[in-house]
Specification:
By secondary structure, the protein is of the alpha/beta class. It has helices spanning 2-6, 23-33, 72-76, 82-87, 104-110, 124-143, 149-161, 181-194, 241-249, 286-295; strands spanning 12-14, 40-42, 78-80, 96-98, 202-207, 213-220, 223-229, 258-262, 268-271, 274-278, 281-284. It folds into three domains: 2-50, no CATH class; 79-103 and 181-295, 3-Layer(aba) Sandwich (Trna Endonuclease, Chain: A, domain 1); 107-173, no CATH class. 21% of the residues are buried.
């Protein structure tokens, strides 16, 4: 197996590495002989830690990059609001705009996969059905070998529908609530935007014993940034109760002004320490557009 690697030049790209996991021990030996970065590029459609048959984990010899689905910043070729808010909380930057490329219901329907951005809308469902079938019949079998594929497919769909909710196994036999789709959409955009930052924030969820909660709390540069998501166009003070409870519960911590991410057209203050933020607030940025084109991720 190692001889195969010797017969190829460098850098060497190995796609779908999960189908040849035994190569990793040979890659380790090659890297130990020559520590120059960028000699091997491994890609695959499975997470590294669930791959079977890995002959070596390449610990200390590899950097792992997770390729997300498209983000709203990429589709709009613009910069998402997160970085500006982290750097100047309480002061929404000028020059931003809402991205009105798709109505919100259609955004829910299309999702963020590259192919669904250009398919006719009546074919989107067919695409996801084929995607699920491929995942269940090929990918899932390769790392878990479920005995009953039909039941496993039902389980996957049920778990996927529990977006932005705490998973309780007893609830998997009832119809899940649908109001969490918006929360999942916003949380996903924040996570994708956070992954692009040099100093990445840590994402938390907060819930008190009494039931008060904050959807997301970002820990960044010694400060906590509490964020709520509401599928509303005009959030009120009532929508900030979880943010207020969070401040009361942690008086000694450094907490930035809170955010209620929603469907409003422009940012506006709800209370003295809480702002409403449009979920799709982006700013045109030539440098960012150039970066996306360099990465080859613009539709």
């Amino acid at each position: 197996m190692g001889q195969r690697l010797v017969n190829h030049g460098r850098p060497l790209v190995l796609d779908e590495i999960q189908y040849a996991p035994e190569l990793t021990s040979a890659i380790k030996r090659a890297v130990d002989r020559n520590r120059k970065p960028g000699l091997f590029f491994l890609s695959g459609s499975q997470q590294w830690w669930v791959m079977k048959g890995l002959s070596d984990s390449l610990a200390g010899r590899a950097v792992f990059l997770d390729l997300e689905v498209f983000s709203i910043g990429e589709l709009a070729t613009a910069r998402f609001w997160l970085k500006a808010w982290l750097e100047k909380p309480g002061h929404p930057e000028s020059g931003y705009r809402g991205d009105a490329s798709l109505p919100l219901p259609e955004r829910f329907w299309r999702g963020w996969m590259p192919e669904t951005q250009i398919l006719p809308i009546d074919l989107v469902q067919d695409y996801y059905r084929a995607y699920m079938r491929t995942y269940i019949e090929r990918d899932a079998r390769s790392f878990s070998a479920p005995q009953d594929l039909q039941s496993f497919g039902s389980f996957v769909r049920l778990v996927a529908s529990l977006n932005a909710q705490e998973i309780q196994t007893s609830s998997l036999a009832d119809s899940p609530a649908r109001g969490s789709l918006f929360e999942a959409l916003v949380a996903g955009e924040i996570r994708k935007a956070a992954s692009l930052l040099g100093l990445q924030p840590i994402l938390h969820h907060w819930r008190s014993v009494g039931g008060a909660e904050v959807d997301l709390v970002l820990e960044w540069n010694g400060t906590l940034y509490p964020i709520e998501m509401k599928l509303a166009s005009n959030p009120s003070r009532r929508d900030t109760s979880g943010l207020a409870a969070f401040r009361v519960a942690h008086p000694s911590l450094t907490i930035a002004p809170g955010l209620v991410v929603c469907c409003c057209e422009k940012p506006f203050p709800i209370t003295a320490d809480t702002w409403a933020m449009p979920w799709d607030w982006v700013a045109d940025d030539p440098d960012y557009a150039h970066l996306l084109q360099f990465q080859g991720r613009v539709v």
